[in-house]
């Protein structure tokens, strides 16, 4: 049985199943990337809720695993060489899990790097821009008298959606007919933008054709449906 006691995070979130991958998360657009991935690949794991309402993300235990104080993060007892691997950043975790299992990332080198480029597109563009729309449209930023920040982030989000719209033309998924970590990385963010953030009309989502159809296909996947609700909110 693996011994995870050397990792301080297990003091706050004890592992009932230390032989399984440990996931520390919250069902946010970034968090569900990893829960969806784990559900898709069928890798046994144990989930721990990082409750932001209790400032769990600021605790020494969480910071010992992710010094950036964010979710998701994992602790894999069966990491490279059979040694435990702590890992943070959702994009890095998706790529690690794909490499570990040989799933949802093409083996062909060219297609592999093309998939990874779309993963980075999500990390560097969709996540930050959609998140800013959420802040300025739904949360505290909506009280700001100056609407230029909202207008900027809405315009950029529309542009990014257009990029995805173009990529999906004639394709079922980002990588043609192959569902990959590129799709997993984006599904929760697009869903959140038009749902929880309430920005459907702002970004003119219904003028698109490919992205709504892609989102519907993705959300219909049983693993995605399960992963979107893991871990359960308090």
TrEMBL record:
One of its GO terms (molecular function) is transferase activity. Pfam families: GST_C, GST_N. InterPro entries: Glutathione-S-Trfase_C-like (IPR010987), Glutathione-S-Trfase_C_sf (IPR036282), Glutathione_S-Trfase (IPR040079), Glutathione_S-Trfase_N (IPR004045), GST_C (IPR004046), Thioredoxin-like_sf (IPR036249). Residues 108-234 form the GST C-terminal domain. Keywords: Transferase. Belongs to the GST superfamily. This is Glutathione S-transferase. It comes from Bradyrhizobium valentinum.
């Amino acid at each position: 049985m693996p011994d995870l006691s050397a990792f301080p995070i297990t003091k706050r979130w004890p592992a009932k199943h230390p032989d399984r991958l440990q996931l520390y998360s919250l069902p946010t657009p970034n968090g569900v990337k990893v829960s969806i991935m784990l559900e898709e690949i069928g890798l046994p794991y144990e989930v721990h809720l990082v409750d932001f309402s209790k400032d769990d993300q600021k605790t020494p235990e969480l910071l010992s695993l992710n010094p950036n104080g964010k979710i998701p993060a994992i602790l894999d007892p069966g990491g490279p060489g059979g040694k435990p691997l702590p890992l943070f950043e959702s994009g890095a975790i998706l790529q690690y899990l794909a490499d570990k299992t040989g799933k949802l990332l093409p083996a062909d080198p060219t297609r592999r790097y093309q998939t990874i480029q779309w993963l980075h597109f999500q990390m560097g563009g969709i996540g930050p821009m959609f998140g800013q729309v959420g802040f300025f449209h739904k949360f505290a930023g909506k009280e700001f008298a100056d609407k230029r920040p909202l207008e900027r982030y809405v315009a950029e989000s529309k542009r990014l959606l257009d990029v995805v719209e173009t990529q999906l033309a004639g394709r079922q998924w980002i990588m043609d007919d192959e569902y990959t970590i590129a799709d997993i990385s984006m599904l929760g963010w697009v869903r959140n933008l038009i749902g929880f953030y309430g920005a459907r009309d702002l970004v003119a989502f219904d003028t698109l054709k490919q992205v709504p159809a892609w989102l519907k296909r993705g959300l219909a996947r049983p693993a995605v449906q399960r992963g979107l609700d893991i871990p359960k909110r308090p």
